[in-house]
Amino acid sequence: MQSQFRPIIRQKILDAQAAPLPSLTRRDVWLPAVAGKALAVIGMRRAGKTSFLWQLLAERHALGVPREGLLYFSFEDERLAGLQAADLDVLVDEYFRLHPQWRDQRRCTFFLDEIQVVSGWEVFARRLLDSENIELFLSGSSAKLLSREVATSMRGRAMEAVVTPFSFREALRHAGQEPDKPAPNLGKAGQSQLEHLLLAYLRDGGFPEAQGVAMDARSRRELLRGYVDVVLLRDVIERHNLSQPQVLRWLVQQLLGNTAGAFSINKFHADLRSRGVPVGKDSLHQMLAHLEDAFLLSSIALATDSVRRRQVNPRKVYPVDTGLMAVFDPSGKPNLGHALETVVLHELQRRGAAVGYVLTSSGYEVDFHAALPGGEQWLVQVCLDVSDAATLQREVRALQDARLDWPRARMMLVYLSAPPALAVPAPIELHRAIHWLLQPMDGTS
Fold first, then answer.
1. Which pTM was predicted?
2. How far apart are CA 124 and CA 89, in angstroms?
3. Where are the alpha helices (DSSP H) in 134-187?
4. Which of 26, 82, 263, 422 is deepest in the core (most CB within 10 A)?
5. Helix/strand/coil for 197
6. Beta-carbon neighbour count of residue 77 at 10 Å?
7. CB contact at 8 A, 411 and 403
8. What's phi and psi for 388, nearest 5 deg?
9. Phi and psi based region of residue 250 (left: phi greater than 0; alpha: psi -120 to 50; beta: remaining)
């Protein structure tokens, strides 16, 4: 097959396989184990998807797969501008010309990054799975195709692995401070240090590029603001050809400036109308969906079996990263209580839980009801400081009231600070945040 891109593709293959493996912070991303599927690595821009592809490549190499059996190829290269779906066969062609002993004889692995820039790539990827002995990983995010659409475009032939900003454990690992034993087994000094680091994590967030004490607060804030601007412009405004970008920005300010708060499209729409802004409710619903598709934020509904109750009650909205809170909070500072709540939600989602919030008939609210993949249910209340007796009593009462509707659920109170002697009625479980967040993914101590 003749192609003007053949020499470029061949050289990129040679360069990628000759390049030293980068030294990267290991990520704790859950990978589905389903044979015969491609794996689509998805997530918000700058969360570390490309780095994760290299991590997967390095892990296979460490297990004994030679470098020639592992190919990382990025399509984000100006020399490949104009590449068509028909040219993608050149990639396979050139790879097996370089390594003919691998064709059909051994299973090689392709890591195709930013493949969505090539129109028609989906047919090529499905054909690779059907006709070649290749394990396939895909990733990408752009205005042409959002990262989640990389998976859906494969029509059932791909599973998703979601890469988020660093978890608390990953942030500690990145800084070289991950504990080498369970957090409860650390001494008092070690636990105090962890609490200090958690406060910094709640404030600064987990985007890899924003880590490190060397970055001042203003630089970090501008970096994160830039991330949001790119998502809004490329992944929402350009991608969906929005005609009211200012309304989108007002919506984002409302959502990210009110983390963990109840949000109602109806109320926001009424507020805009009172200011003379002509926009339809359907447009606002679509904007919220676009923001979630771009992984900028997530919203959770009321935990109930009633579809009508879910629809009529407001949703609670959380940013993808706590570092974004100070960018949009009018005070310029994050609410640490809401930041801790956000981090707990992200940890539940990493564990594969379906999450909603609870509002009891008596008017009490519990932050999260989590239905875990194994069938276990958790009621999780998050509180920054339970030193005040009235605060503790309110949190306990909410859990007890919620359990009347969820009798099989474990009740957990996750807190940052507490008095030395803290007691709650059984079977409520007390969890210090630095311990709970560093538990293994199965939830065991």
1. 0.94
2. 8
3. 147-152, 168-174
4. 263
5. helix
6. 15
7. yes
8. -80, 125
9. alpha
Tokens of 339: 């930041």
User: Cα(419)–Cα(306) distance, rounded to whole angstroms?
Assistant: 40
Using CA atoms of 219, 224, 226, 228 in order, give the dihedral in degrees to the nearest 10. -160
Q: How would you write the pLDDT of the chain (445 residues) with one tens digit per residue?
A: 568 999 999 999 999 999 999 999 999 999 998 888 999 998 999 999 999 999 999 999 999 999 999 999 999 999 999 999 999 999 999 999 999 999 999 999 999 999 888 888 999 999 999 999 999 999 976 555 566 777 778 888 889 899 999 999 999 999 999 999 999 999 999 999 999 999 999 999 999 999 987 889 899 999 999 999 999 999 999 989 999 999 999 999 999 999 999 999 999 999 999 999 999 999 999 999 999 999 999 999 999 999 999 988 999 999 999 999 989 987 767 799 999 999 999 999 999 999 999 999 999 999 999 999 999 999 999 999 999 999 999 999 999 999 999 999 999 999 998 888 888 999 999 999 999 999 986 544 3
d(CA 95, CA 71): 9
Q: Does domain 6-162 have CATH number 3.40.50.300?
A: yes
Question: What does the alpha-carbon distance between residue 423 and residue 111 come to, in Å, rounded to a whole number?
Answer: 51
Strand partners, 377: 371
Q: CATH 3.40.50.300: which residues of the chain?
A: 6-162
Helix (H/G/I), strand (E/B), else coil: 135: strand
Instruction: Name all contacts of 128-132 with Cβ < 8 Å and 24+ positions apart.
Output: 128/92, 129/36, 129/37, 129/38, 129/157, 132/92, 132/103, 132/104
- Give how far Cα 249 sits from Cα of 19, 143, 241, 254, 262, Å: 42, 17, 15, 9, 18
Q: Is the peptide bond before 427 cis (omega within 30 degrees of 0)?
A: yes
- Is residue 53 left, alpha or beta, with left meaning phi > 0 and alpha meaning psi from -120 to 50? alpha
Kindly state the helix (H) or strand (E) to which residue 338 belongs, with its residue range. helix 336-350
- Sorted by sequence, the CB contacts under 8 Å of residue 403 that are 6+ apart come out as 379, 409, 411
Q: Please give the Cα distance from 151 to 253 (Å, whole number).
A: 29
